[in-house]
Write a structure and sequence with these properties.
By secondary structure, this protein is mainly α. The chain is built from seven helices and no strands.
Amino acid sequence: MPTPKLLGPILATAAFSVFDGGVQPVPFWLMAAAQASIGLFMGMQLDADRIVKTEKMVPYILIGTAILIVVSIGMANVLSARYSFSLVTAFLAMAPGGIAEMSLAGMSMGENVSIILTYQLVRVLVINIFIPPLLAWWFKAKQA
């Protein structure tokens, strides 16, 4: 099973919600603690030397980020028009962020987290299940 540390908790939560009839809403204090934990974790990964070394890449990073945001907004507009989701829900569902980050952002904004989570989960599963074998095949074909 690819990415067992990701799929295990997701499948366990899904099974629990199916057999128990749903999950309880997250209390505000727990939501704030989760957001602070993610922010602290990401901040602790920053290193002054790495930041200085990536200075030359800043223009490329900004251009790539802008392209990703524009494509996400375009896809969100299509999704919103086709399925009548709010534009914010559709954008968070299409944004190339992490599942936890997009879900927490959706929760804090009062958006439909189940839609956001579903689209993010499908994106992550497709990437983790299909891309590694595809890359292995691609590189094996290039070497031959």
